[in-house]
Amino acid sequence: MINLHMTRGRWRKMALLSGDAGCGKSYAIGMLCELFRGIGVSGAVSGMTNRAAATLADFTGDTPVTTFHRMMGYKATMLDDSLPVAQFVALYRHEHKAAVEDYEAFASAAMTQTEAHPRCNRRRAESCAVCSRLFDQHKQHYQAVYPPFVGVNIVIIDGYGLLRISAIERMLACMRLFYPTGCGPLIIFAGSVSQLRPVTPGVSVWQNSTFQSMLDSVTPLLVNRRQFLDPGYAEAVAYLQYNTITCEARAVFANCVTVTPEQVNDPTYEPDSLRIYHQDTQREAYAAAVVAHVADIRGASALANTYVIVSHT
């Protein structure tokens, strides 16, 4: 990812950090933030909700974490999913008119002799640590309120599975107001499509071919670290990341922890070995859905070679 950030002139500067709950995404983001700070690279980190941002902030140290909407500078009056992208960007530009114009003036200004350095012949605050420092000095003398992502080298978006492709289109369109074609920060998406789903209708990000084609680096986290006291369960969860149902996974989930209704509603109850399928009822529904989906895409003949079809006994 660092090599990707340092590559100038690339139009594809998007990376993906994937992994289910417990695989260490938040820890990895914290390590990246520490590494970036060590080499003088600035970053903006966001979560999908205030609670998610607060949890992630426990790992990022001195790198602040905000919600996605706050990082992008979205206002309450702009949160209308029915707006076309062009109309949304026009509203965004009007809201941040002073910041857009000031950043354009900063970026277009010629480098002075004292500022010049071998890497840049023009100011590129989003992909150069030296230019980033110049931009920070510039902001101290200007009263415009910039969206937090402006001028940083790395943008990290945690929980991207909650976004629709329309949200990504809006995000990139708004970023273009501050950067010319081919320029911009490295964007790292982190999350898992098997966790929370988007609440609005439409195509999910991971299902969109355009989004997939823009990714230049994909790093999967496959080992469930949260269940280190129960390695068998962790292995079964790893299989489920690929919608693979095995005899071993079925045996693990069949040995479930009995949870009473009172314990379900008790936030302090958390056994060392936590089974996500209570008494196998949810496992059966999940298995049926996976079998139907794969059979529809690949055909019933391919299903027998890939999956172990199980029934509740």
TrEMBL record:
It comes from Aldrovandia affinis. InterPro entries: P-loop_NTPase (IPR027417). Pfam families: AAA_19 (PF13245). This is DNA helicase.
